[in-house]
Specification:
By secondary structure, this protein is of the alpha/beta class. The protein has two domains: about 190 residues, Aspartate Aminotransferase, domain 2 (3-Layer(aba) Sandwich), CATH 3.40.640; about 100 residues, Aspartate Aminotransferase, domain 1. It is about 40% helix and about 15% strand. It has ten helices and nine strands. Strands 2-1-3-4-5-6 form a six-stranded mixed sheet, sandwiched between helices. A three-stranded antiparallel sheet has the order 7-9-8. The chain is globular. Bound molecules: pyridoxal-5'-phosphate. Pyridoxal-5'-phosphate (PLP) binds next to helix 1.
């Protein structure tokens, strides 16, 4: 257990990475992954994505073979899998996950499976935890979770992971010298969240699904937006390239203009290694979402 999934992830990086070791990160990625790798003096090795926003499996196979099973400097130690994904909301199928697992097993690469959005799934989509696929995969997987998303307890800072005993032992050594344990009060609150009545989770999931449906319908109705229907988490990740002009040349410019002209805050795709896209979060009220989309519509029409 650590101070949020974030610290647990950082503990893993510190345990696994020696200077110039590689960590395979599929784009678009949650922002802290690459920065944590760099802070541990590792090298993020990015994998590109297809039109469906899922990783290019053949590229992963190639990179894993090139840097996996390599002894010494430059070897790939870890792959980070995040499904449902922040920022795209995509959910990997059982087949996809099995294929990713096979590549990692073959090339001696450990897997970080960040499952913090596992409870937020829509349209009947299913979450598969890679560690449950086989005993072999369980051995090389570090499964991450937290109370921050599922129970909207972001500020309580409780994240946790499950992995092989030896890995946990090394992580404990690292955390002992940084923050020790997370605040006891937050630990008791997390126990209550995890063991108490779970109805609130389904209530939240249903509300998010309504918001997802609404945003997706409204965004795709605006000519020029190109958007994959997200199946999980609480983000949509539309492509904005069609709106580039003399003033707006990338997603950073688009987000900047939208903020200054329409007072709407979105995150430019560059932050996630995917320029030409923006991330819209729907972890806010329906009222604000409606107002936000109205403003985006006016901003595009102007
Ligand atoms: C994919 C992903 N992993 C981990 C975290 C960090 O979670 P925590 O707040 O528990 O540190 C986030 C938070 O945004 C996230 O989106």
């Amino acid at each position: 257990m650590g101070n949020g999934a974030k610290q647990v992830l950082d503990d893993i990086m510190r345990v696994f990475i020696n200077p110039s070791d590689r960590v395979i990160i599929p784009k678009p990625f949650w922002v802290s992954y690459s920065q944590q790798v760099i802070l541990s003096e590792g090298i993020p090795e990015f994998i590109d994505f297809d039109a469906d926003l899922k990783l290019k499996m053949d590229q992963l196979g190639f990179i894993a073979e090139k840097y996996g099973n390599v002894k010494g400097d430059g070897s790939a130690k870890l792959l980070i899998l995040n499904s449902p994904s922040n920022p795209t909301g995509i959910v990997y199928s059982r087949e996809d996950i099995a294929q990713i697992g096979e590549i990692c097993l073959k090339n001696g690469i450990y897997i970080i499976s960040d499952e913090v959005y596992e409870k937020f799934l829509y349209g009947g989509s299913k979450h598969y935890s890679i560690a449950e696929l086989s005993d072999e995969l369980k051995e090389i997987t570090i499964t991450i979770n937290a109370v921050s998303k599922t129970y909207a307890m972001t500020g309580w800072r409780i994240g946790y992971c499950a992995a092989d005993k030896d890995i946990i032992k090394q992580m404990t050594k690292v955390q002992d010298q940084s923050t020790s344990n997370p605040c006891t009060i937050a630990q008791w609150a997390a126990i209550e969240a995890l063991e108490g009545n779970q109805e609130s989770v389904e209530v939240m999931r249903q509300e998010y699904e309504k918001r997802r449906d609404y945003i997706y319908k409204r965004i795709t109705a605006i000519k020029g937006f190109d958007c994959v229907l997200p199946e999980g988490a609480f983000y949509v990740f539309p492509k904005v390239k069609n709106f580039y002009n003399g003033k707006i040349k990338n997603s950073f410019d688009f987000a900047g203009e939208l903020l200054t002209e329409a007072n709407v805050a979105v995150v430019p795709g560059t932050a996630f290694g995917a320029d030409d896209y923006i991330r819209i979060s729907y972890a806010t009220s329906m009222e604000k979402i409606k107002e936000g989309i109205d403003r985006i519509e006016n901003f595009i029409r102007r």
